[in-house]
Every structure is written in structure tokens, then in C-alpha cells.
Design brief:
Number of helices: 12
Structural class: alpha+beta
Shape: globular
Strand content: 15-25%
Strand order of the largest sheet: 3-4-5-6-7-8-9
Distance between the termini: 107 Å
Bound molecules: adenosine monophosphate, magnesium ion
Length: 400
């Protein structure tokens, strides 16, 4: 009797141990898999490829360019004058709303430093409605790409809110996008060059840069002509999308209205004879000193006239070897360059083999807020000749 009882007790003990071991095994597996979920992002941070950011940024710029092209080809562009007397159009507001919506859909906790804000539209219902009429119609002709960006905005209010999410103060910490929905608005109004510009800055360092230039030739080999900045169209053969990721090189591809077209790698061209270098400058005399540029060109022995064009199309043009140098020297001591006017172009040129500094030879510092307050002007050139160009710049400006 006793032995029978003992053997039942023994089997009960063995079964309990087996059940317990099984339960411990399952819980250990669960914990390990949770642990690997926690470990995975940490590993991917150290080898960030920024491939998703690059894809979203390029598609967002491409979608916004559908809207800017529509406005570019209309006579009435809904122009307002901002407090600093610079113009803004329905194209600027609409493009900013669309791009910010796409960033927030994909990267909700990222901040955005955008050039525009909506207060003037909240006081001007007609203009706000005109922009909404445009924005609600714009979509990429490729369903998956369009839905990646979040599809259409839900309402006019959502559009205004989206515009105002570009209000980040910028700074040295975190993920911050710099957005100029239409860089070169004056060129856009004149029928010259303009660019839709977007860059991701992480802890003060530009990691991704994208420029959509609807009026530049698709062909990277097309040489820059003196009239490149005037009487432009965005018709057949025009429209290019430049992009770069830090450490991964720079590319160009045709600006499409659907999914991304195949890309080509771009490089600055070698300049064996500096006398033959082609340099780019702003059209607007109020944005950079034409007199200093002419004196620098003379010092370097360059005799050809500079190619004048608006916007960061200048950075894109030298990055693909259509031109060689970009000089932007201050006309006013108190003006601080804006980060959205340079972040994307700076990275694209550097990733194409160029060096970009200010007139003091310092790298552009995107960690200082909404402006480049620690920099003076811009000197962009191929690596092999940058020191020589900077030397001429400093000679003319009396900086040495
Ligand atoms: P760009 O088309 O290259 O001449 O540059 C256009 C950008 O110049 C605009 O987006 C403005 O933010 C910027 N800008 C406005 N005033 C000035 C100024 N006084 N100096 C330099 N840039 C300026
Ligand atoms: Mg601008």
C-alpha cells in the first residue's frame, strides 16, 4: 500500500518537474525574443543607411514639385510679401504642407525647420482656399509611392497645421529636417531656376539631402549656358532630382510625377586648368556680392562670365560637373544665411567630391539653430582646387 502510494507520489513529482521545465523554457524563449527586439534597433542605429529617409524625402520632393510646376505655369501665382519684403507664393505654402505631411507620416517625432508659416493665410481665407484647391488635387501617379507619403491631406485646417509644423528652432541635438519648399522664389516668379529643397540633419550633421530642380536639364552633361537662369521652362527634357546620403555618394535622376526613376551617380568634374573654371552665382545682387565675385575670378585668371541662377540649383549644377565653383559672399554684415538655403546642396556637393566652406574656411555649421550664424558666406569647389579658390576669396575680402 505504502509502496503504491510512494510510486504515485514519485510520478506526480516527475510530471510537475516536467511541466515546470516546459514553462520555464517557453518563458525564456519569449524573453530572449523580446531581448532581440530591443537589441535590433540599437544595432541598426550604428549602421544607419538612411534608406527609408532618402526614399521618403525624394518622393516628397517629387510630389511637391508637381504642385510647384502647376503654379509655375500659371500667370497668377498668389504672391504675398513677407515681413522681410521677400515674396512667397501659393506654391511655397502648398509644397511646404505636402512635404511636412509626408515627413510626419513616416517619422512622427522628427522636427522640421521650414521656411514658411501660415499666419498670413489664416488672415486671408481666399488665398488659403486657393492653396487647398491645389494641395487636395496633388498626388503621385504611383499608388504605393503616394500612399507611402500619406495620400491626400484631410482638410484645409490640416494643411495649415502641417505648414506650421515647420516651426522647429533647430539645434545641436536630434533629428531635424530643413525644408525650403521653393528656394529661389524670385527666380520662380521671373521664370528662372528654383528648387524644392529638403535635408535631414542629425545632431547637427547633414545626413540626407534632396534637391528637386524642375527647370534644370535632365542631362547631367548639359553644359551651363549664360541664359540658364532666365526664360526657363519645365517642359520636355527638364527636371532633375539630386540626392545624397552622408558617406554614400550623390546621385541624379529625372524628376518624375510617379515613382522614382533609376538614378545615376554624379561627381564634380576635374578642373585641370583653373582659368577654364565655370562659376555660378545668384541672380539677385542683394543675395551675394557680384563685385567680390568678379574680383576673385580676376585673381584666379577666370575670364568667362559667371553663370547666374537662382536657388540651390547652383549646388546641384556644380555637383554634376556642369559648372565648377559656387561663390556666395555677403553683401550685408548683419545677414545670417538660413539652414534651409544650404543643407541639401552642401551635402550633395561634398558627396560629389567637393569641399564646401565659408569665407573663413570653416565647414557650414547646421547645429546653430535656424541660421548659419557662425558662418560667413559660402565657397564651394572641387577638392583639388578649393584651397586655391579660398585663398583668392580671402585675399579679396581682406581676411588674411
Ligand atoms: P539665391 O536664389 O541663391 O539668390 O538664394 C535665394 C535665397 O536667398 C532665399 O531663399 C533667401 O533666403 C536668401 N536671401 C535673402 N536675402 C539674402 C541676403 N541678404 N543675403 C543672402 N541670402 C539672402
Ligand atoms: Mg530659399
Amino acid at each position: 500500500m505504502r509502496t503504491r502510494f510512494e510510486s504515485i507520489e514519485k510520478s506526480f513529482f516527475i510530471i510537475s518537474v516536467a511541466v515546470l521545465a516546459f514553462a520555464i523554457g517557453i518563458s525564456l524563449r519569449c524573453r530572449l525574443s523580446q531581448l532581440s527586439i530591443h537589441i535590433a534597433p540599437a544595432r541598426s542605429i550604428s549602421t544607419m543607411s538612411y534608406s527609408q529617409e532618402l526614399k521618403v524625402a525624394q518622393l516628397a520632393v517629387q510630389r511637391a514639385a508637381i504642385l510647384t510646376k502647376r503654379v509655375f505655369n500659371e500667370k497668377a501665382k498668389g504672391t504675398l510679401s513677407k515681413d522681410d519684403k521677400s515674396p512667397v507664393t501659393i506654391g511655397d505654402f502648398g509644397a511646404q504642407a505636402l512635404i511636412i505631411q509626408a515627413i510626419k507620416k513616416n517619422f512622427p517625432s522628427d522636427e522640421i525647420v521650414g521656411e514658411e508659416e501660415s499666419s498670413s493665410l489664416r488672415d486671408n481665407k481666399d488665398l488659403s482656399l486657393r492653396i487647398w484647391d491645389l494641395v487636395k488635387e496633388v498626388k503621385l501617379e504611383h499608388a504605393d509611392s503616394d500612399s507611402l507619403l500619406g495620400g491626400p491631406l484631410s482638410s484645409e485646417d490640416a494643411m495649415l497645421e502641417s505648414i506650421d509644423q515647420g516651426n522647429s528652432a533647430g539645434g545641436v541635438k536630434g533629428r531635424i529636417w530643413a525644408l525650403d519648399p521653393i528656394d529661389g522664389t524670385k527666380g520662380f516668379l521671373r521664370g528662372g531656376q528654383y528648387a524644392v529643397c529638403l535635408a535631414l540633419i542629425v545632431d547637427g550633421d547633414v545626413k540626407v539631402g534632396v534637391l528637386g530642380c524642375p527647370n534644370l536639364p535632365v542631362d547631367d552633361a548639359a553644359t551651363l549656358t549664360e541664359d540658364m537662369g532666365t526664360n526657363q521652362t519645365d517642359q520636355e527634357g527638364k527636371g532633375v532630382l539630386f540626392a545624397a546620403v552622408k558617406g554614400q555618394g550623390a546621385t541624379s535622376r529625372p524628376l518624375s510625377t510617379a515613382s522614382l526613376e533609376p538614378s545615376k551617380s554624379i561627381q564634380m568634374r576635374p578642373v585641370p586648368d583653373i582659368l577654364q573654371a565655370v562659376f555660378c552665382e545668384s541672380v539677385e545682387p542683394g543675395h551675394s556680392s557680384k563685385g567680390d565675385n568678379a574680383a576673385i575670378a580676376e585673381k584666379l585668371g577666370i575670364t568667362s562670365k559667371p553663370v547666374q541662377m537662382d536657388s540651390q540649383a547652383k549646388y546641384g549644377s556644380i555637383a554634376r560637373g556642369a559648372g565648377d565653383l559656387y561663390l556666395r559672399l555677403p553683401v550685408r554684415k548683419d545677414y545670417q544665411e538660413k539652414i534651409w538655403d544650404h543643407a541639401a546642396g552642401d551635402l550633395i556637393v561634398r558627396e560629389a567630391g567637393g569641399v564646401v566652406t565659408d569665407a573663413n574656411g570653416k565647414q557650414l555649421d547646421f547645429s546653430q539653430g535656424r541660421t548659419l550664424k557662425d558662418n560667413v558666406g559660402v565657397v564651394a569647389a572641387p577638392e583639388a582646387i578649393h584651397a586655391k579658390v579660398l585663398n583668392a576669396v580671402q585675399g579679396v575680402l581682406g581676411l588674411k
